Amino acid sequence: MYNYLISSDDIEALNDKILEINNSYKLDFDVIRYDLEDDDIYSIIDDVSTISLFDNPKFIIVKSANNIASASEKKVTELLKALNDKDSNNVVVFTEMDKLDLKDDNISRLKKYCIYFDIRIKNIPLDEYAKNYLKKNEYEIDEQALVQLIKYSVNMANLKNNLDILISFKADTKKISVMDVTNMVKQPLDDNIYSLIDMVLNNNKKAIFKIYNDFRIENIAPTFIISMLLNKFQEMYDVYVLVKGGADQQSIINLFNVSNGKAYYMIKNSKQVSIEEIKRNLDELINLDYNIKSGKVDQYLGLELYLLR
């Protein structure tokens, strides 16, 4: 019997590891799945202990491994006894889409009978993940294109989606340029809001209304734009105060749970404008938000007057 215990913060990374384990044995498995949210441990014990109909080895995947913590000592003891069958070719993989409670007695006992993996995708820098992902698929990407791609990817899930789009569209050349990223990957709303803030602070009316019209085309409500502007100016204020107090880039990463690149731009944005200007915009947006919600001002007119001021 070969047993594994895997915890992960990413379902794709977890499934990749399960597939890797399955392929490593080069056996014709009967794949069986259980979820300890719904299934009883005794069902797993029975499956582990019995021979399949066609005498194939079993590849048993058990979700929600943390539930073993609440199982009785008798059930866990019988499960571990079944897992300790050294003459069996079955493989059992226990998985948990969360941190495993390794301090729990039952989980700790299970871990002793398993090969343990803890896969934390959020700890992997986005640029490193993108380079490795593309290399694995035999794609090349320009350094500037990689920087642009990371800037446009707000989290790991978004990055994976963007990578799949680029891989699909560049299958002929397998080379990705800045122009490819610009044309094929949608710029995140956050970036457009930051661009809008930049234009507001620089009083660039032409650029302001180009971005605003893009929002209108996408049917994004003015109240949502105002809320986003409020959040970003508040973020700028918080970062300004933190940096003034001695916070460095790593502190911003930890406090806001953002990537290294995002933290860099947050600090840069907070330094480009005075604290008085940030406060003035915050006050105007808070008043505008109140007046719209109280019915005193039309949301479209209110936002346009703010942008024109």
Structural notes for this entry:
By secondary structure, the protein is of the alpha/beta class. The protein folds into 3 domains: 2-120, 3-Layer(aba) Sandwich (Rossmann fold), CATH 3.40.50; 124-184, Helicase, Ruva Protein, domain 3 (Orthogonal Bundle), CATH 1.10.8.60; 189-308, Zinc Finger, Delta Prime, domain 3. Helices cover 59% and strands 11% of the residues. It contains 15 helices and 7 strands. The protein has helices at 11-25, 41-49, 73-83, 105-111, 126-136, 143-152, 156-169, 178-184, 189-201, 205-217, 222-244, 249-256, 260-271, 275-293, 299-308; strands spanning 2-8, 30-35, 58-63, 91-96, 115-119, 140-141, 175-176. The strands form 2 sheets. It has a 5-stranded parallel β-sheet, sandwiched between helices. A two-stranded parallel ribbon has the order 6-7. It is elongated. 23% of the residues are buried.
